[in-house]
Design a protein that fits this description.
By secondary structure, the chain is of the alpha/beta class. It is built from 11 helices and 10 strands. The protein has an 8-stranded mixed beta barrel with strand order 3-4-5-6-7-8-9-10. It is globular.
Amino acid sequence: MLIVDSGRSKNLIFPEECFEYDIASYHFHFQPIYCLKTGKIKLYEALLRNSESTTNIEKTVMALISQGKEDLLTLHTLSAVKPFFSDKIKSPLSFSLNFEPAQIASSRFPALVKYFFNRFNIPKQNVMLEITERACSTKMYQSMIKNIEKLIAEGFAFAMDDFGTGMSNFELLSQLNIKLIKIDGCFINRAFDNNYSKSIIEMAATFKEKFNCSVCIEGLETQEHIDFVKKLNFCFGQGYALARPAPLSPIFA
C-alpha cells in the first residue's frame, strides 16, 4: 500500500499491487534535447516504452485514463527520474516528463508531484513537467490550469508539448508562465514542401522574445532540418537526426 501525505486531513492511498499489475511491463527510454548553439544536451525527455514493438503507447495511456487510473500513471511517470536522484547518485542531468490533461486535472496531481519530489529529494530545477496537447472538456481544462498554477507558485516548471497541433495552445500561453514551448515535428517535416509550414516555423522562432520562454523544435530528422532551424536561432532541438530515444543508466548520468 502506497500512502502519500496530501497535506490534508486524509492521505492518498494507492494499492501497489494494482499499480504494478497495470504497467509493470512498461519502462522508459530517454531522448536528448540539444542546445542548438553549443551542441550540448540540455535535458532528456522520458518516453514510455514497452518490450512488445506492436504495443501502441498512446492507446495504452488513454486506456489507463479511461479506467480512472490517471493518478497511478502519474506515479509511474514520476518514477522515470527516481533512479537518477538516489542517496548515492545526485545526477547533474535534467529531465522532462509528459502528462496528459486528465492527469494534471486530477485533484491529486499537485500532492503526488510534491510528494515524489520531496520523498526522493529531486531538485525542482532538474525536472520539467510537459503538458501533452490533447482535447479536453472545459471543466478538465479549468482544473488543469488551477493545478498548474499551484505548482508553478511552488517553483515547478512547465513545458508545452506538441505545440501547434491543438486548439488551446495560445490560450495556455496567455494564462500560464510556461518555461519551454516544444513545436510539433509535423511542421519541420513539411517545411520544405509547404510554405505555410515553413512560415509557422519562422514565426515560432520569435516565441522566445515574445513569450519570454525557451523554444524547442521537435522532429529534426535530417541535417537539412538542423541547418534550417539553426539559421532561425531556435534555442533547442530534438529528433532522430540528433539522437534516438534509448535507455539511460544512472551510472553514466
